UniProtKB/TrEMBL annotation:
GO terms for cellular component: integrator complex. The keyword Iron-sulfur does not apply. Signal peptide: none annotated. Residues 821-945 form the Integrator complex subunit 4/Protein SIEL C-terminal Ig-like domain. It is found in: Nucleus. Keywords: Nucleus. InterPro entries: ARM-like, ARM-type_fold, INTS4_8HBD, INTS4_C. This is Integrator complex subunit 4. It holds the Pfam family INTS4_8HBD. One of its GO terms (biological process) is snRNA processing. Its main location: nucleus.
Amino acid sequence: MSLAMKRPLPEPTQTMLQDPAAVVPLLGASTSARIYKRIRLTARKSTGAPPSILAYVNLLEDTAGNSNDALQVLIKISDAMLFDESEFPEAIRKLVEHFRREPESAVRVKTLSLFGDLAAETGIDCGVLIDEVIGLLKGETSAKVVSQGLYALERIGRACVLPSVACTNKMVFFAKSKLFSPSHNVQRHAILLLGRFVLVSDAEKESLELIGKYTDSADARVRAQAIRSMLTLGERGVNLPASMYARACGSLSDDYECVRKEALQLVYQLGVRHPEHLVKVSKDSDQEVRLIDDAFGRICNAICDLSMHIRTLAAELLGGMTMVSDEFLHQTLDKKLMSNMRRKKSLHERNAEHFTSGEWSSGKKWADDAPKELVNAEAVSLMASGACGALVQGLEDEFLEVRTASVNSMCKLALKNPPFAVTSLDFLVDMFNDEIEEVRLRAIYSLTAISKHIILREDQLETMLSSLEDYSVEVREGLHLMLGACKVSTKACLSLVVQKVLDVLLKYPEDRLSTFGCMQRVGQKHPEICMSLTPQLLQDHPFFDSAERDVEDPSYICVLIMLFNAAQHLPPMLSLFPETIVRHYAYLRDTMPNLVPHLNLGGQPAKLALTTSTGSRQFLETLLNNIQSAYSAPQARQALLKAAQENLDRLAEIDPSFSGTANFTAVFFGTQLLMEQLQVATTGQPTKAPLKDCLAQLIRKCLKLQNLFSSLTLEDELLVKQMCLRASALNLVLVVKDRSQSALAPCQLLLHIASDASNFLQENSALVADSFTSAILTKLAAVGDPRPGRVFREILPVVQAAAPVVIPKINTNIKMCKAHILEPSESSGSTDNVVKVTAGLIASVPFVAELENLQESQRQNLRLKIKYPDQNVHVIVPRRRDLKKIMTEQGESESHWRLRTTVLLSHGVWTEASPVDIGICLAVRPNTDLELCKPVKVQFAPKPVKRGI
């Protein structure tokens, strides 16, 4: 549990009802259960306890002759599902008795469904439940009830963490006995149960053959489930033999979509598992091909299926078949079948066949000596005709799902096969003109991924660059990324790229950051071509001095960024730069250090990096050793901690790769300093800073440690939990001493955090808690009545005598979640850029931010915070579609996101323009948020309504 600001908290009983899992055992399990039970009973007194499951089940005895009422009772049990587990054995016994005397099959079906719900959502004994269900189904005659019972067994078996072999064998034996039922639902669920629970050792011998027989069932649902169960066995580790391939291929021509879908996946799995196995191309042919090649052709054939879902699945599966032969792979981009339907033979083979036939041409009949190997197109089976132009067919499909899957598969195949990447280049470029933005983006990102295998020609660049004027900012940024990743072939190509990029920048000035990054990568990849274009791009006349250009011009900045990055890899370029470029380099180097590299311009040597990862680690080790040596001297230790915070903050700015570790250590030291100050206050001594402010800062730092850092080790997590436990104990002690507010909420908070720490220690028994944590947990476990006053008296001596916190070990993998606001920029806060709007109406401000190390669990807590000059604060939840992962040359970034949205501002009349703060934060608790960056200021001026004449 997280710490909270000093504010009114919900009652303890309400908190327990909202989050029952929040209270976990303390050091003493019995004491913990006693505390939890007492709080739960208190909650029931105030809110009304739900009736027990036995109370519901007993109602069934009163409705023995009314099936409708019995069904309603069972529905109520299924909806409640929060009961005392000690009542389950008796409740199950009574439900079984009611099942046996119930005449209506619908009620029996609901009873079996309830057994599955109990197993999935409660801690009931699954072994006993399996025996009961099997016993009930042995004498059952209704196909609906048996089918539901088999499905309930499957749910119960999945709910078991480690089902025993005896229970598994019982379910498998019972499922085999129901395979011969005339009902297709019973057969389907029996096959489902077999695929899920049959033993792996038995599956390879007889179970696969048994399940495989039902692929020829008269019912399509049974056929589909049989193939799905075989796939499930394969996922569980069963070796699917290549002999199943013929049966899987036969199911590809099934009339029902569900069967074809499962058969496609089975063909794919067999092709991937047995790529070198040889199969005949047809029954009446002696020629053989690799199984992966034949499977590839059959899946290609499915791209022409009538069902959109089948076509999409086929296009997706093609991307995983990277071991296919080159001739089959390249055939997917060519709609012409190979060699005019002829199988090539050598001259010796043709002469031998002609001689052994004993026939000679008489010349009386036209073409009577035609080659014997000429065959009919319909009889050709050397390569499945579906492989011819299959990916082209997918790219031209009417549904965007198929086109997107085809583009993704083409990218995966091209990454493994450079010649195929060159062949597929033209087809990916054509997809830049697709009508759907998502498809265009996938094509752009795919081309970026395979950029290392290709070189762009001028005719291809024309199509690409025409897409730069797309209305979508994501498409334009994707093209900037792609152009920076690819290489061009000639000087004319690079000139075309630069000119088009600069022209589009004039039309979309908001793309300047993306354009700068594009030109930086273009210069790095084409130093030789950039050198030949330097005089032309700089407009440097060989005889006359040219006018000095404006260094604030974005187009000129783009050219300089490209040339400077090219000169980094080709130093002779520096001699081509005029004197004005030297001054401009110094300016851009200071304002854009991430885009402009170090160069030896103006006679000054290139600067070296300020630090390295090795130097950062040595600095941090020295810092921690100095603090550790002053462990027993409080004044020296506190002075070192204060100085260490400043040094670590500076280290985080200098070395970005070490910033997470430095920030974590700095926040940890700051928390320790505040604790030592507050610990002095618990003894009654006066402190320099107000206690409330110190407590608020302490709570906020603890929240940062809990929510802003990722990739922590178990030792780091334990340190954070111990730190939060100390903070909550200090909070309770100081609140009780202050006597100005209720101590119930701080006491409950301490119990919650202590429970969390105790549970963490029990799950990780190798970890050892410090003396303070052990003492606090022992005291709380011994408290019979955890009231604030009693808890205060128990923990007060421990808090006053607490030793300093253990210093964390160096963990270089720690990442800190942070944000960088790109738009509005810092210049938006100047008086020259004022957002004007009529008072009461709405002004929209574009907002773009990049977030680093944002985990999936933190996305839902992301907020935009708007603070007006009158201290009104608005917190906005951004739309999910506005937050997207940042694309790089290597693909999607795992934890780097870009937030692109619009912030709406509105207010009453102001006399003059005033700054409005717009920031981005994480809402970790109600009314508590953590800022991820410094807010940007926007000058906002709501004007009064102009009256007409």
